[in-house]
Amino acid sequence: MPSDSTDSPRPLKVVVSPVPEGSQIDNRWPVSVNVEWIVTEYVDNKPEPSALADADVYIGTDFNVAMGKAAKSLKAILIPAAGYDRIEPDAVPKNVIVANAYHHEAPIAEWVMAVAVALDHELFHSDRSFRNGDWSQWPGRHGPYRELYGRTFGIIGYGAIGKRVARLANAYEMRVIAAGRRSETLHEAKADGVEYGAGREAMDWVLRGSDFVLVSTPLMDSTQNLIGERELSLLRPNAYLINPARGHIVNEKALYNALVSKSIAGAAIDTWYEYPVSSDDSPRPSKYPFWELENVIMTPHHSGATIGTLDRRAATVAANIDRLAKGQPLMNVISGFGAE
User: With bands split at pLDDT 50, 70 and 90, how would you rate the model's confidence at 339?
Assistant: First the structure.
């Protein structure tokens, strides 16, 4: 690993979880400056607080009060992911920078369009039933299927994921409508061939007018339970909800009830309400039995978990370590944390 004694008087101490067996940590995090890696096991996505005692940088997705109290020398929390809802704002020490990494929009958009096609064409049900000798999904008995062409794709949250999905939906020659938080996004959406509105009324417009609704907004206090019973009731009976964002943006009970009652046609869910906290536990992802329903596609939060995403995020985190060592501004700094 190259040294940079001119720009960095001593190596930065960086806390990181172990890399897979056979991998090299310098390859996983391709820094160009000299660093001292503090490799420690993470339990429930967190190291023991004592591991942070003299660390300059912590790479991880979770940060709590105990970690903040232990981190006496911390300069930056670098999240190798987009979401920052598990970084407790009050836990981050003063003057500590928090920065994230995106690069997941391409695979998530691929997943979104894949499940849209699978839901609309009843692919999984057709496969399961036909394997068992059942011809009920044959068009001669089932009737014709729908298609994405000419339908309306709605997007709630017009960030990187929403924009990427809009491009793909446009390629299917769908009408794309979107709602976001900022009216300034209007010109970007127009350039993408997307009809756009900002605020609560715009979200209701998207819910009422779409055949597919993508949830792609970040989870924060203002988006917790953003979509509940009222919002789901605005969806058409033949509409589908697709959520690769965060489970708690959509009210758990309201979504389950909408699917059981078939007040909406179905859903594809990649992000959940309960997760494993150790390497060998397997909790159910919800207190409601979504897995018993035939109008749901369930995946274990893997829509963005590709080799490409992993590599691109690692490169961004490594670049921020380089920048920190050289006294340069970091990329993707998130406001509202200790550096403010």
Answer: low
Contact between 157 and 218 under an 8 Å Cβ cutoff? The reply is yes
pLDDT at 340: 54
End-to-end CA distance of the chain: 33
For the 105-298 domain, the top CATH level (class) is alpha beta
The DSSP code for 18 is: P
The pair of structure tokens assigned to 215 is: 């949830």
- Strand partners of residue 178: 155, 196
pLDDT (tens digit, 9 = 90+) per residue, 52-78? Answer: 999 999 999 999 999 999 999 999 999
**HSE of 244, CA atoms in CB hemisphere, 13 A:** 25
Instruction: Tell me how far apart the alpha carbons of residues 83 and 89 are, in angstroms, rounded to a whole number.
Output: 13
- For the chain, what are the domain ranges? 12-103+307-325, 105-298
Of 277, 286, 293, nearest in space to 251 by CA: 286
In three-state secondary structure terms, 130 is helix
Tokens of 145: 């299927």
Residue range 12-103+307-325 forms a domain whose CATH class is: alpha beta
58 exposed, middle or buried (CB, 10 Å; 0-12, 13-18, 19+)? buried
Q: Provide the β-strand partners of residue 36.
A: 13
Q: Which residue has the tokens 């009060």?
A: 65
Please state, rounded to an integer, the average pLDDT across all residues of the chain.
94
E strand or H helix that includes residue 108: helix 105-120
Q: For residue 103, what are the contacts with CB-CB under 8 A and spacing of at least 6?
A: 308, 309, 312, 313, 316
Are the CB atoms for 87 and 67 separated by under 8 Å? no
Query: Do the beta carbons of residue 309 and residue 107 sit within 8 Å?
Result: yes
Amino acid at 51: A
Query: 3-state DSSP call for residue 57?
Result: strand
- On whether the CB atoms of residues 163 and 191 are closer than 8 A, the answer is no
